[in-house]
Amino acid sequence: MSGRVPKRVYPLAALLVLLGIGSLCMSVALTLNRYRVPALFPISFVLLMAGQMYNHYKRRRDWFSQTFRTYENFRAEAIEGARQVRHEKGERAVVRHLGAQYPHLPSTMMTRLIKEL
Q1: Are 27 and 41 in contact, with CB atoms under 8 Å apart?
Q2: Distance CA 6, CA 3 (A)
Q3: Nearest in space to 112 (alpha carbons), one of 53, 104, 57, 98
Q4: pLDDT tens digit string along 56-112?
Q5: How many whole angstroms separate alpha carbon 27 and alpha carbon 83?
Q6: Is 33 in a helix, a strand, or coil?
Q7: Which of 100, 94, 96, 65 shows the shortest CA–CA distance to 81?
Q8: pTM higher than 0.85 for the full model?
Q9: Closest-CA residue to 48 (of 74, 2, 13)
Q10: 107-116 and 91-101 helices cross at what angle (nearest 10)?
Q11: Distance linking the first and last C-alpha atoms of the chain
């Protein structure tokens, strides 16, 4: 075993992905049997993407809560470096700096910190 921690899959995300796969299979089966259900194919892709996006969002939120516990803890750690980068290079550089420093940081937390600068 490599010692790598498996990624968590959230039940709602799994349900959305499975519904998307099921509707995609049903769309293909109905099309092969000469039935026309034009809305089913795009709906299946929407369900698949919604499941993936939800899983991605929840993983970032969990990472943040495990790493920092609260926004105040994150702010205490990141505010001075962000202020220094903003003073030297500007607002866009702060976004790049925070993205490089904390790659799993939720965008809501990044936006909130930048507004406070």
Answers
A1: yes
A2: 9
A3: 98
A4: 999 999 999 999 999 999 999 999 999 999 999 988 999 999 999 998 999 889 999
A5: 53
A6: coil
A7: 94
A8: no
A9: 13
A10: 140
A11: 44
Token output for 93: 């550089």
> Each residue of 78-92: pLDDT tens digit?
999 999 999 999 889
Distance set, CA 97 to CA 17, 87, 91, 110, 115 (Å): 34, 13, 10, 11, 15
Token pair, residue 49, equals 């993407």
| Tokens matching residue 2 | 């490599």
Give per-residue pLDDT as tens, 22-33: 999 998 888 888
Give me the count of residues in the chain.
Answer: 117
Give the DSSP letter of residue 34: T
Q: Dihedral (C-alpha) 85, 88, 90, 94: value to the nearest 10 degrees? A: -10
